[in-house]
Design brief:
Radius of gyration: 34 Å
Number of domains: 7
Shape: globular
Strand content: 25-35%
Largest sheet: 7 strands, mixed
Helix content: 10-25%
Strand order of the largest sheet: 11-35-10-12-24-8-36
Structural class: alpha+beta
Distance between the termini: 42 Å
Number of strands: 45
Oligomer: single chain
Length: about 850
């Protein structure tokens, strides 16, 4: 089971009451101390819910999985419990295995045959597998009952932009902070006393910032006022100034059965399907026509406008899909889950579809208004298996029947793993709710922005001012004289003035490229990740000399430095007030627009943090598809963004560029010395872009016989292994920085297992076993349910970091119930020495990392022993 459920016995009772279905009840590991060591823990006594018929289970129907040190254990023989001495019953199966397992968890699974993972016919799919441990009979000081907890989420510190430098950023910073401290205060009226004080403080901050960074001329970076000047100054030191980024989010469309199979098209140019935030005058009207008075009226209220990035195929069955828990109640999907079961057969649900898992009701009250809106997460499906049935006849039935219920299994990638525990069903005052958590389909990706386009030549409402490239001006005539003879007549040539038109509307949308023709990213999470290096006003802006000739289109670029004379490209330069100007080439770097060329502009407006709207803010869809505008049939019942829009970033301020551009070029872009490699591997813009995680590295240069080789030892987060895949990825990532003629080798650090023995004195009123268990959690290598790390978590140690005895004693003394501790042994494992115990410091070498797992499966990875004082 993938769920943490509160009534595991319901499934067994249902199987027991069914006339033909059987399943595993429990399993025992025979461990007789009188047997020889070779024969102990090799006999599994499997108890079934019902009696087994002859030859129901054979060797080929059993599969043993799991193990860490000991794997691939083989089933040697299978005998009925009736043939044992003494007889154990017809519902017992005795399984002999080839060897005993280790301390980890194993799974005994019933399969139809060696080539299939499905259970044999007549066996319940849930009770056809059981987890067990070969060491269950080994002595232990703790309660063997497993803990099934969905731990609370650790709190997050508020993100504060300490680089705020002007009135708008100071004001937004204080409003953001007040929204966290006083969420009930939502007043934004300028007449409000709170807003007046915020604006007063923002004005003072802006005034002080202005006094510090006053400008005088456009000739220098430190004194420039216009964004265009600052952008060009920064470009000289290879610093790209960004103009912000628009936001993206997922929208959910609830439709009727009449919409089954219909496709809500994205549209093109001005007819692109749009989505609006809630408009009070259009309450209850989820669908609006593009060329209607309702749309014009909605625009007058200035809602935030989003546009569909791809087509959506709609199905009524995808509106809301309940989870299937195989008869169990009060279940939850644990944090990190990557698979689940959905109720019903869903043949129209396919891989690559996006679902949003949401908490529909409050788990403690059962009311929809008490649902936690932060419990929402989008996943892109990788596996959809609709050919599954529950033979017991339905979910939550106390008595089974003979009507199998179809079930759909879904899986998603690890990158989309559930970031929180999601309650699926709950019991509130004897009322059971099976739809506390649900999955919602009909999901589409939208981003912030509104497309406007020129549709006619010489229109008075042209979106480009001016829209026609100017001709030659006599006042700008260029006179060229001969460099060798003053007697030769001067050559006169007319010069056309620079064409720098202004876009009529602003702010222009800056968006990451999205190609509908390419397959979508593998995960929904990755589809909402952005790289500022890819952000351009593309495909948000385009120019054409002729609407019927796509080849005459002009495209934007960051700069024109590498453009050829014939390239039809331009640069968008945004000023402080958001006004955007276009800069074309001069005939050498980019083509100069021909005289009299009439341009037709298409661009999008809407950018920055204004698009970061909250969840459930989008309520209307604007389309030109007649199928969705038919007044006689209602197809779309509601539209909503289940998740808040994210990714919207305001344009970079001039002050930010002044602070960063002068030193940005000093960033290391080559690796020669060992220190260069060590610095590169911890830079997020280097290894983070390659999807790698490195906590720290240590490099050393060696002569290997014919050339120099740089050996790079890497310490990964969470103690992850430096395997072949990671090594290859890191080498590829660092290839552009590697010095020619120098090889690069990546290897793992040297782990130093520790051996620590601690004697603990317990305070009166506490049990030693309880305190011992708490101490073992504190000195573990795992992350606890409350988010805290154990003392020996891999991320707490790195290269050459010594282990201090004082910190170990302090951590032990902080545990409730500990009166005093005495460390009797503090050394490297297997190397008896009192030096570290006397000095209070266990030193590590340059490429050594301390490790203490205290894992009985791997005792060579460190041992931590507790004794009663």
């Amino acid at each position: 089971m993938i769920y943490f459920c509160c009534d595991d016995e319901r499934r067994r009772i249902a199987v027991r009451n069914h006339p033909s279905i059987n399943g595993i009840d429990f399993l025992e590991v025979s461990d007789d101390p009188q047997d020889s060591l070779q024969h102990r823990q090799r006999t599994l006594v499997v108890h079934f819910v019902k009696d087994l018929a002859a030859d129901d289970i054979k060797i080929e129907n059993l599969k043993l999985e799991g193990g860490e040190r000991i794997r691939e254990i083989i089933v040697n023989s299978v005998t009925s419990g009736l043939s044992s001495s003494p007889p154990l019953g017809a519902n017992v199966l005795i399984v002999e295995v080839s060897e005993r397992g280790d301390f980890s968890t194993y799974t005994l699974r019933l399969v139809a045959d060696a080539e299939s993972d499905k259970p044999p016919e007549g066996f319940d799919p849930i009770l056809s597998a059981i987890d067990f441990s070969f060491k269950i009979n080994c002595p232990t000081e703790f309660d063997c009952k497993p803990q099934r907890l969905c731990g609370p989420e650790p709190g997050r510190d508020p993100e504060i932009n300490y680089l705020a430098k002007d009135y708008a950023s100071f004001r937004q910073l204080m409003l953001d902070r007040l929204s966290l401290l006083v969420p009930e205060w939502r007043e934004r009226s300028p007449a409000d006393l709170g807003i007046a004080l915020v604006e007063l403080l923002a004005y003072v901050g802006d005034y002080l910032s202005y006094q510090q960074d006053a400008v005088a001329t456009e000739s220098y970076l430190n004194t420039a006022r216009r964004r265009a000047s600052v952008r060009r100054h920064a470009r000289l030191v290879d610093y790209p100034m960004h103009d912000g980024r628009n936001a993206r989010t997922w929208v959910h469309l609830k439709v009727t059965d009449a919409a089954n199979g219909l496709v809500l098209s994205r549209g093109e140019r001005a007819t692109t399907t749009k989505l609006l935030t809630r408009v009070a005058a259009l309450e209850g009207a989820p669908v609006i026509g593009q060329a209607t008075g309702a749309f014009a009226k909605a625009l007058s209220e200035r809602p935030q406008i989003f546009e569909l990035l791809d087509d959506i195929q709609l199905f009524e069955s995808h509106n809301e899909i309940e989870f299937y828990t195989w008869g169990a109640r009060e279940c939850c999907l644990p944090k990190g889950a990557t698979r689940a079961y959905l109720k019903g057969e869903l043949p129209t649900l396919e891989a690559n579809d996006v679902l949003v898992l949401v908490e529909k009701r409050g788990p403690e009250t059962g009311r929809p208004e008490d649902a936690d809106r932060t419990r929402r997460h989008a996943v892109r499906l990788t596996v959809v298996d609709a050919a599954i049935q529950d033979p017991l006849g339905g979910q939550f039935k106390p008595q089974p029947d003979d009507n199998p219920v179809p079930v759909t299994k879904i899986e998603w990638a690890k990158e989309d793993a559930l970031p929180f525990a999601l309650c699926v069903s709950g019991l509130v005052r004897n009322t059971f709710f099976e739809d506390v958590g649900v999955a919602l389909g009909n999901i589409g990706l939208v981003d912030h922005g509104y497309t406007v386009a020129d549709e006619a030549a010489n229109s008075p409402d042209s979106l480009l001012e001016p829209s026609v490239a100017p001709g030659s001006v006599q006042a700008l005539t260029r006179i060229s004289r001969s460099p060798t003879s003053r007697c030769e007549a001067a050559t006169m040539s007319a010069v056309a003035p620079r064409y720098r038109p202004r876009l009529k509307y602003s702010p222009i949308t800056q968006a990451s490229p999205y190609d509908r023709k390419k397959p979508p990213p593998a995960t929904a999470t990755r589809q909402l990740l952005f790289e500022d290096s890819n952000v351009l006003p593309l495909p948000g802006i385009g120019l054409r000399e002729d609407l019927s000739q796509p080849k005459d289109s002009w495209t934007p670029r960051r700069d024109l430095l590498s453009s050829d004379p014939g390239d039809q490209v331009f640069v968008v330069e945004v000023e402080v007030d958001g006004t955007a100007y276009l800069r074309f080439g001069d005939g050498r770097s980019g083509r100069r627009p021909p005289e009299g060329t009439n341009f037709f502009a298409t661009y999008r407006i809407g950018n920055g943090t204004a698009g970061n709207v909250g969840a459930d803010s989008i309520s209307h869809v604007v389309t030109s598809d007649p199928a969705f505008l038919d007044p006689t049939s209602t197809l779309i019942l509601s539209v909503s963004n289940l998740l808040p829009a994210t990714g919207g970033v305001d344009p970079e301020t001039i002050e930010h560029v002044r602070q960063n551009a002068p030193s940005a070029f000093r960033r290391q872009e080559r690796a020669v010395t060992p220190a260069d490699y060590e610095a590169l591997t911890i830079r997020k813009d280097v290894v983070g872009r390659c999807g790698l995680d490195v906590q720290r590295s240590a490099a050393r240069l060696r002569w290997t016989g014919s050339w120099h080789t740089m050996f790079l030892t890497v310490d990964r987060f969470a103690g992850a292994q430096v395997d072949a895949g990671f090594e290859h990825g890191l080498r590829q990532c660092l290839e552009r920085y590697r010095m020619a003629g120098q090889d690069l080798e990546v290897d793992a650090p040297t782990d130093v297992p520790l051996e620590i023995e601690m004697q603990v004195c317990i305070s009166p009123g506490y049990f030693f076993e309880d305190v011992q268990q708490a101490l073992l959690k504190v000195f573990s290598n795992r992350t606890q349910t409350d988010g805290s790390r154990g003392v020996f978590h891999p991320d707490n140690f790195t290269f050459g970091q010594a282990v201090l005895l004082s910190r170990i004693v302090a951590a032990a003394q902080a545990v409730t119930g500990v009166a005093s501790v005495v460390v009797a042994k503090f050394q490297r494992q297997g190397i008896p020495s009192a030096e570290a115990l006397d000095s209070g410091r266990l030193a590590m070498g340059l490429h050594e990392i301390a490790r203490l797992d205290n894992d009985p499966n791997f005792p060579e990875r460190g041992v931590f022993t507790l004794k009663r004082a």
